[in-house]
User: What shape does this take?
Amino acid sequence: MNKNAQIITALQQKGGAGKSTMISCLAAVMAEDGARVVIIDTDQQKSCMEWAEERELPNLDVVSHLSEDTLFDLVEKLEKSYDVILIDTAGYDSRMATYAIQISNLLLIPSGGSKKDIKGAARTWLHANNLTKRNKEAPEIKIVIWKVKKGTNVLAHAKNSLIESELPVLPTIVPALIGFDVISWNGGLPEGSARAAVNEFVASLQIEGHLKYYVKGAA
Ligand SMILES: Nc1ncnc2c1ncn2[C@@H]1O[C@H](COP(=O)(O)OP(=O)(O)OP(=O)(O)O)[C@@H](O)[C@H]1O
Ligand SMILES: [Mg+2]
Assistant: This one.
């Protein structure tokens, strides 16, 4: 199905972990670099749609899509015109998320540092892995520690717990920073240390070979 575009989906059972923020930031960095990017916002909350309405970015489109049974058709239509298709979901436990998992090349699971977040990430990984492990081309799945303060015990617990469970975790974390809240008001990318964290996150994905589109500014 994936003819040209790389399809990247954000999933996480636990709400509020950072799916929409992650998708928006990834999209904006790639679009800024010159990739043709589209976000398919499959969440009724329309966080990515609302974020994009605050500021128009060249190379970036966002479509709201709430009908599960036409997701494949939409992707088939878009994949010829874009380098990257990013899908924001409302979780993992829905037909929409199941379709998104099936169609993606890369699945990203943001996780905070609480036990609930880590359990949610583990369950989301298990679900996505079970759904795809017998696929001819199973997607890569990565858990991203997101919105956790650096240098805290919580971060240490979260990291240890993921590593002990042998879950695939990205080495770079995206810390809790106020700059991320601002983008829901301003659109676009955060500034300062939050922007640097986004760059590090994209670079880490790139260094690990997860991105098909090469972001020149990232690594
Ligand atoms: N790294 C971060 N540091 C601080 N705040 C963050 C960070 N990432 C996201 N946030 C904030 O956390 C809140 C939840 O983020 P977001 O909406 O991206 O989560 P979500 O997983 O998409 O939530 P939902 O399950 O409701 O769709 C938002 O207010 C967002 O601005
Ligand atoms: Mg969201």
Remarks:
- The helical segments are 19-33, 47-54, 71-78, 95-103, 115-132, 153-164, 179-186, 192-207.
- The radius of gyration is 16 Å.
- The longest strand covers residues 140-148.
- The CA atoms of residues 91 and 130 lie 16 Å apart.
